[in-house]
Amino acid sequence: MIDTHKTLYSPLKTRLQLASCAMMWGCRLLLLALPVALATYWLSASDAALVSGAHLPTHAVAQPLADWQRIVAALIAAVPLALLLVGLRQAGSCFQMFSRGQVFTLQAARLLGSFAAWVAWAALASLLADSAISSLLTLGNPPGQRHLSVAIGSEQVLLLFFAGMVWLMASVITQGHSLAEDNEGFV
To answer: In degrees, to the nearest 5, what angle opens at C-alpha 146 toward C-alphas 142 and 151?
Structure first.
């Protein structure tokens, strides 16, 4: 007799476990690469690129940016990134569980929910960070020529929407797990 459960579902399980393992390593790689990319950007990008990235007109900065402005701006930009990295760490742990075949567990749902929360906080923090950076970059301008840019971009909106979707999925898994435990109690 052929064990259809093993034959039909093992390749799918293996593919999901391999994909989860790859995602886990992807999260770990991003944990290292994103801070390096942020530092490289703020230390090496042209003034024009930094001004444009801060949603300011190209003529907004009257003089070349000082090194301290670049460093402080990088530190401000690091706050939302740090929040995102905490979320990526949660996602990596979740994918590690998936790679071990632990899929619909309370711990996996909690990790997904935590990932979603950290991504949402990162999106909200980036709104504040972008405004602070725009002020910082024009701080050397004479009074009356300084800028404060307030922008809600598609990046933040999509991150918040994505975080909401993942949080909802995690909540559904948690609720499903609770219902399954209740049903086991009746049997």
So the answer is: 170
